[in-house]
Specification:
The complex is a heterodimer.
Chain A lengths: L1 H21 L2 H5 L3 E2 L2 E2 H22 L7 H28 L11 H7 L5 H42 L7 H24 L1 H26 L8 H14 E2 L4 E2 L2 H20 L7 H21 L1 H4 L12 E2 L2 E2 L3 H24 L1 H11 L1 H6 L4 H27 L9 H14 L4 H17 L7 H15 L8 H20 L1
Antiparallel strand pairs in A: 1-2, 3-4, 5-6
Chain B lengths: L1 E10 L2 E11 L4 E6 L5 H9 L6 E6 L2 E2 L5 H6 L2 E4 L11 H8 L6 H14 L1 H5 L10 H13 L5 E5 L7 H16 L3 E6 L2 H7 L2 E6 L2 E7 H6 L1 H6 L5
Parallel strand pairs in B: 3-8, 3-9, 6-7, 7-8
Antiparallel strand pairs in B: 1-2, 1-4, 4-5, 9-10
Helix pairs in contact in B: 3-6
The chains are: A mainly alpha, B alpha/beta.
Chain lengths: 493, 235
């Protein structure tokens, strides 16, 4: 039993390390140093710690926990097993040139993995190091988990009694949130144009994610054509603020007009699909998204066709230039905060309750006296409005838009970030956007392997945390309930 | 109170109800009994507005309701506890009950009714913060009835409250239905368990293949040789 836990943990960690080695990620990460240690060595060390953690978690799962010496030993064993996954490759590659087969395993890789030492010493250092680190977490785990439990208890009790501000809650919840808020507001000042632009993109997706969350997460209507409203918003803004029709209405006046047009688009989509559910709804909305894109592409006289619309004016405020990435970042930030505020209020309102009922069971919702037609259309319209605002900002920021900006991929990305972040959860969607839109940019250092790594992360994520990064309480319950049911079913058979 | 006049309801081309006529008076328990596929649930769904009759009318205190959408019918005080205990499985018991009061805005009275429902079904009180889906079958049925009561209906439509429950629980639920009726709610009860239904009802109708085959007081039906042979299992 103990042996099995070590082998399992060692294999997971070893295979990950092997993947990192073969894909050349250790090479790519060797550059940046933190406190004098290269990033690849830090990641290697983290892998060692991870191995110990996996082992102990597995061992502690049973009725009674094994004695500490046993968990410590198992941890060490897991580290050795993990090391044995890459040690042969290191040994082989330092003896002969393997680049004909594995073109990313360069002499540099070997230098990194053997810490610059010669063959026997280097490999021993690698395996030994992993073993020591893995053993260390295994040894410390019981203390850490006890502290963690204590902290959770503190939070739950302080949530129930006492003034929140003076209790543990204020330190553990409010303080980090304030710091995060300050970081979000101040960091872009020092980051520079490129990062401001990336963060701006993340923000636009946050707004769209929150909007789609109203439709999919709150009302349970699977919409795969969400990009249509983004496109409608962008083009509506472009028409109003470019030489194309020689109108220069200005950002602030355009905004309510764009919202109205996008909401109308939402209702336009909503009416024909009122009777559809689940898969059928998804297919029809998917078609709607494509129809809008094809219209934009082919109505050349009206929309400029594939050449798009150029020279779109940025927003302006008297005395302030809003045309640079930093200003856009703050504009988008304000939009995100407003969207998050509005959607969270909606969730807790009477409308939100009606949506919850429709999501759970439309027929029963009607029997409860809920006007399902009205609330479904409302969900489509509100979701569309947020995409419309996102589209306006997108158009004004890009200064030029083309039908190719509004492909199905945008809808899928928005849906993905909701699922990854945690459906129905507002902080989850923000985390999802950062992960899904920000991460590919951050991973640019990996060049060719960027999307491979990204895909692998998505798969890992869905296997280990299907409820999303920061799930809503209800969604988490749901998934774990299913697990419990499955557990009972397997126990019975 | 409720007058159903010669309704014909179709599922596409299938002629499910072939002219059903009956009435329910204020304060009564009226039961519709019959075999599977006789049209009992279809009749209920036509009354509650989920289905529309092709011809015929449903009148609530003289005013037609068959032309109104389902959510409006609920607003008029006709509430259905649907077949198969369709509760909101992921919402808590409390949220389920609150959802029942969706059409109402009088917060104090809603709170009163919540207490009344919890008095009727003490088991629900113990499970207020549990998701509805984790309740047992009997508790889910209690929740479905309780939720329907939260809309403070004048006419409560119950669709097979005994379905899939243990005999002891069925008795308990039927006693509660009787209590609800004594507190002034008119009840239209659809049941396959004719024995239990006729034991608590004032009057009853026997449905067969979309038509009313027999009608009478519960006592008459209980003693009717045809009913005894077909539904009560007497030899």
């Amino acid at each position: 039993m103990q042996l099995r836990a070590s082998i399992k943990a060692g294999t997971i960690v070893g295979a990950t390390a092997l993947f990192f080695t073969i894909s050349g990620m250790f090479n790519a990460l060797a550059g940046p140093h933190i406190a004098g240690v290269s990033l690849s060595h830090i990641i290697l060390a983290l892998m060692g710690l991870w191995g110990g953690w996996l082992t102990v978690r597995d061992l502690m799962g049973g009725e009674e926990s094994p004695p500490p010496w046993q968990t410590t030993l198992s941890g060490a064993l897991a580290g050795i097993i993990a090391g044995l996954w890459i040690a042969p490759l290191v040994a082989l590659a330092s003896a002969i040139d393997v680049r004909y087969v594995l073109d990313s395993v360069t002499p540099d890789t070997i230098t990194i993995l053997s810490f610059g030492r010669s063959l026997p010493q280097g490999v021993l250092l690698l395996v030994g190091g992993l073993a020591v680190l893995s053993m260390a977490t295994a040894l410390l785990y019981p203390y850490l988990s006890r502290a963690n439990l204590q902290m959770r208890q503190d939070i739950s009790t302080s949530g129930l009694s006492g003034p929140a501000f003076f209790s543990g809650r204020s330190v553990r919840v409010i303080l980090p949130l304030t710091l995060l808020g300050l970081l979000v507001v101040l960091a872009p000042l020092r980051l520079g144009g490129y990062y401001d632009h990336v963060l701006g993109s993340v923000g636009i997706y946050v707004m769209m994610g929150l909007g789609l969350n109203v439709v999919v997460g709150f009302a349970g209507l699977l919409d795969l054509g969400y990009v249509a409203f983004f496109a409608i918003g962008a083009y509506a803004y472009a028409f109003l603020n470019s030489p194309k029709y020689n109108m220069h209405v200005g950002f602030w006046i355009s905004l309510p007009i764009v919202v109205a047009i996008a909401a109308l688009g939402g209702i336009l989509l909503g009416v024909p699909v009122l009777r559809m559910r689940g898969d059928y709804l998804a297919i029809v909305t998917l078609g709607f998204g494509e129809i809008i894109r094809l219209f934009l592409n082919n109505l050349v006289k009206l929309t400029g066709g594939p050449q798009g619309i150029l020279d779109i004016r940025p927003p302006s405020l008297p005395g302030i230039d809003l045309g640079n990435p930093l200003a856009f970042y703050y504009l988008i930030l304000v939009g995100c905060v407003a969207t998050a505020f509005v959607t969270s209020r909606l969730d807790r309102s009477r409308i939100g309750r009606a949506w919850a009922a429709i999501r759970e069971d439309e027929d029963v919702a009607r029997a409860m006296g809920i006007d399902t037609v009205k609330y479904k259309l409302m969900a489509f319209a509100i979701g569309a409005s947020f995409a419309g605002i996102g589209g306006s900002i997108f158009a004004s920021r890009q200064a030029a838009i083309f039908p190719a900006d509004f492909t199905l991929m945008v809808s899928i990305n928005v849906l993905c970030l909701i699922i990854i972040g945690g459906m129905g959860s507002i902080p989850g969607i923000i985390a999802g956007s950062v992960a899904l839109i920000g991460l590919p940019e951050m991973l640019r250092g990996f060049s060719d392997y960027r999307l491979l790594i990204f895909g692998a992360l998505l798969v890992i994520m869905m296997v280990f945390r299907p409820e999303g990064l920061i799930p809503s309480v209800r969604r988490q319950q749901e998934i774990h309930e299913e697990e419990e049911k499955l557990g009972i079913a397997t126990a019975a058979t | 109170m409720l007058q159903v006049n010669d309704i014909h309801t179709y599922y596409g081309h299938i002629h499910a109800l072939k002219g059903i006529t009956f009435y329910v008076s204020q304060g009564e328990i009226v039961t519709l009994i019959g075999a599977n596929g006789a049209g009992k649930s279809t009749t209920l769904n036509t009354i509650s507005g989920i289905l529309k009759p092709r011809t015929g009318s449903v009148l609530l205190e003289g005013a037609p309701i068959h032309t109104k959408p389902a959510h409006k019918v609920t607003g008029l005080g006709v509430c259905q506890a649907p077949e198969g205990r369709k509760i909101f499985a992921r919402l808590t018991v409390r949220e389920n009950l609150e959802m029942g009061a969706y059409t109402r805005k009088d917060k104090a009275a809603i709170q009163e009714d919540m207490e009344r429902v919890l008095e009727l079904f003490p088991r629900l009180g113990e499970r207020l913060h549990q998701p509805g889906g984790t309740l047992s079958g009997g508790e889910q049925q209690m929740l479905a009835i309780g939720r329907a009561l939260m809309s403070r209906p004048r006419l409560l439509l119950l669709d097979e409250p005994s379905m899939g429950l243990a005999p002891l629980l069925v008795e308990q639920i039927f006693r509660i239905i009787q209590d609800i009726n004594k507190q002034g709610t008119t009840i239209l009860l659809v049941e396959q368990n004719a024995q239990m239904a006729l034991a608590i009802a004032h009057r009853g109708y026997v449905l067969e293949t979309g038509m009313i085959a027999l009608e009478g007081t519960a006592k008459e039906l209980r003693e009717d040789p045809q009913v005894r042979a077909a539904y009560l299992g007497a030899t």
